[in-house]
Amino acid sequence: MKRTLTEVSALCEGELAHREDAAIMIQGVTTDSRKPGDRCLFIPLVGERFDGHDYTEEVLRSGAAASLWQRDHGTPPAGPVILVEDTLVALQKLAAGYLRESGARVIGITGSNGKTTTKDMVTSLLSTTYKVHKTEGNFNNHIGLPLTLLSMPEQSDFVVLEMGMSARGEIRLLSELAHPETAIITNIGESHLEQLGSREEIARAKTEIAAGMPAGGLLLYNGDEPLIPAVLDEPSTVKPEGLNGSTFGLGEGCSIHPTGMMFHTEGTIFTDNTSTDSQPFKLPLLGKHNVLNALGAIACARHYGISEENLRLGLEKLKLTGMRIELIEGVSGITILNDAYNASPTSMKAALEVLGSMKGFRKKIAVLGDMLELGKDEIEMHRNIGRSLTPQTVDLLFVYGQLGAAIAEGASEVLPAASVAAYNNKSELIEDLSTRLHPKDVVLVKASRGMRLEEVVEAVRNQPIIPS
Hints:
The protein is α/β, with parallel strands linked by helices. About 30% of the residues lie in helices and about 20% in strands. The strands form 5 sheets. It has a 6-stranded parallel beta sheet with strand order 9-10-8-11-12-13, with helices on both faces. A 6-stranded mixed beta sheet has the order 17-18-22-19-20-21, with helices on both faces. It has a 5-stranded mixed beta sheet with strand order 2-7-6-5-4.
């Protein structure tokens, strides 16, 4: 974003503290006092344990062009300052105004699982034809989404925005800020059950993405999930006039669905019912759940006129945002499926399905940890993961954590006792695991991010000699 302070103050509905600063040009926006960009606009946010206003004077000395300043914080420091009532609200207004002026078309993506992967897919497909900007990392909340918009090059044709939440009303805020003309709901899972209480409430939270859509907007959603249309039909659901709905999924009743799938160690080959030619898609990802994500992305890209040739090209050149099922080869030759970024019952079952589909390995080994934020039924949900296993899915199961122990309990009902081991000490798990590995094994590592099971991934990856 490049604007004069006069233009910035108009967009965020602020007031210049000094009129002589009107022509100063800002280049970019930051909320991080530790990394003030040269000539940027600093926005000092106020949190429970921090206040960016405490660092404003230092940031201005470090090269920032100007800063916002919340009026209730007294006299601002010397330097170019725009006075606002609330710096967070001003950030959001500034982003919305910049988006309006840019003319970029917005695609919003939400869901319990798969939204980051789908965002990356949509971006890759559209980028074969258009200039596309997307959410980076986990900048998908009421602060991150505005910062994503403000980092967008002005010549962008599209911006693809991931929208996350932990409570009702949060996605509605993001949707009404960005006004996506097309939105995708990947699925309704169990993440945030602790906060929302039921899958129905999660569905209501996710369908809030329709609230800010324009009349006639396109909503693409998982047709295998009956809660989504049920919630969309509720009188309390806010949605635009003439909302166009279309479904993607594995079931034949979905508008777009797979007609064939073949899995191999480097990815998936699939066909769908709406292709205009007979050529398959090659996806460098594992699992049916990623075919599902790809179908949503393909439906979106076709809506914007992407050719079949470019659809295939976009999927083949797909680059993903960090630690979703990542295929890694260890120094010994062992194969690792790294999915240590997050976990819910839905994503855990999908990852285990991927492990079960792997062919040609000596043993299939799963290292699983706690799934967090599942609410009052969390123990039973963990037990059910264990009960879902079969000797064909996994040969050895190592679990870590207090809730992970419940996975072991469930697994002990269906797997031989010698193939299940539970640990509260990660170092002990790694030590015991290392004695059971072979270069021709495949190891899945999956848990919520807070369990830090990437430490297990690194240990397995770097083990040079594995005993047979």
